[in-house]
Amino acid sequence: MRELIKQPIFGRRFLGHFWSLIGVYWRSPDAPRGTLLLAGAVCLELGTVYANLRLADAERRIMDAVQDKQATVFLAAVGLFAAVSAGFVLASAYRIYLRQLLEIRWRRGVTAYYVDHWMTERALCQEKLHGGEVDNPDQRVAEDVRDFAASALGLSLSLLGSLATLVSFGGLLWTLSGIWAVPLHGRHVHVPGFLLWVALLYAGLSTWLTHVVGRRLVPLNFDRLRYEADFRYGLMRFRDNVEVVTLSRGEALERRNALARFEHVIRNWWQLIAAQRRLTVFTGVVGQANGVVPLLVAAPAFFAGLITLGVIAQVRFAYGQVSGALNWFVNAYQEIARWRANVERLSTFAEVIDATAKDLERSDLRVVPVETPVLRLVDLKLETSDGRVLIDGASAAVNAGERVVITGPSGAGKTTLLRAIAGIWPFGRGRIDVPAGVHTLFVPQWPYLPLGSLRTILSYPAPEGTFPDTRIHEVLRLLGLDHLTTRLDDTAQWDQQLSPHEQQRLAIARVLLNEPEWVFLDKVTSSLDDEAEKRAYTLLAERLPRMTVISVAQRPEVAAFHSRRWTIVPNPVGTASFEVA
Fold this sequence. Notes:
By secondary structure, the protein is an alpha/beta fold. The protein has 2 domains: 2-361, ABC transporter type 1, transmembrane domain (ABC transporter transmembrane region fold, Up-down Bundle), CATH 1.20.1560.10; 364-580, Rossmann fold (3-Layer(aba) Sandwich). 64% of the residues lie in helices and 13% in strands. It contains 18 helices and 12 strands. The chain has a 6-stranded mixed sheet, with helices on both faces. A 4-stranded mixed sheet has the order 3-7-4-5, with helices on one face. Helix 17 packs parallel to helix 18 (530-543). The longest helix has 53 residues, at 251-303. Residues 1-6 have low confidence and may be disordered.
């Protein structure tokens, strides 16, 4: 955070991050369509500037007709004003419409990019290697991408409009400034573009002061996103584990922790609203004073009879447009501060994803797909993420169709071995040969239950609809889950409705439905009684007799359902030997 505070708003780091994020969508296949939408939005943005220029001229005609008491000219000028106003309204409406169409396409492209790069087999490694560097990746994908796309378009198009306004109305102010002389020490001095120089000076001073007053908003908005996400994540954790928390009588502690996280939100909010109050007061004073400046400058020329009332109206309109364009930074400062925080969060997230990929490439632990139907461990050493050695010098092989059980005390590294075989554990060295092109399924002790219907959960990781209901009913009956056959269309929080032994039987049902060629079971029957455990392994052997099974087991009874055994034996020095039988 201290590094972020020291970074300039548009420093080299920001520009590099911004350019990388821009390229995510604008180098994608959808970029040509986005280019057409952007071109349309730009044309309409410039069209509104031109319409404003015509409105200024129409207002001059109206005021001159009022001053000269010419009713016919007045009505004609009002008609012109109405026609130009209608065009301005239409251009403004469709300008926003096209911008929103592009915004959703941009958001879709960037969201898909982050989802594709985050939700991979490297996600666990990212958490283990860089978990402390990136908080709440879900919020970064959902909210920061949305705000980045909206602000990038809104700020860039409004900046374009401001520059076009500055050129158009700046030229008009320069022309109007030549009509009268500026009184100075009893003389009348002609200053080319006097009104334009006044606007430039006023806007430059107010912009610098705005940055001085509001620069604290950048780190405060960064913290706001982080604290809000931490608070929300804590509430979600309680919701997802409400039964365990209630049984543990941990509600009071959860409440204290939730309120403690919320205190960070409140403290940051007070700091944020104080900074916004200072900025709002300052920009309000600047805006009110700015409305009087053109009148103070033009009034002496009007009193001297050098300009008409219509010219004063035109001057005020033009000065307001130029001043608004020059004050773009002042008016957009708070959004820029929020947007910079979005860019920073998305960029650091992308950097961590890339760093994880590079860490895996540099890892001395290699998982190599081979054409032979053999899983082989070659001089394998496994460590924890903090460097503690679990297994050292393991060498073994499993042929297709074999059934191997992995045993050893808790914490010896059995689950870590499965992670290494799956290619999601980079800590260690050695080589693991895995059969290429085979259907493999890893089943954890407690199955993941995705959002959706019970049919979706049973089919996972295959998509819903892969298996006919008749087959799902049969598998449920075989595993004693008949009571669920009528609830396949129900959507609920199944991880809270199903008991632990029901969840583990559901995991076995997934294996029977998906029919993998190789399956890795991590203590998947730990909550089943002896009879249910025997039934589960018997079904796997009967229904999928050619399937290769590698099981991690805590209970010795599981070994009876396997033909071979790998045993991890802890040594006094803290490591473990690897015995094959």
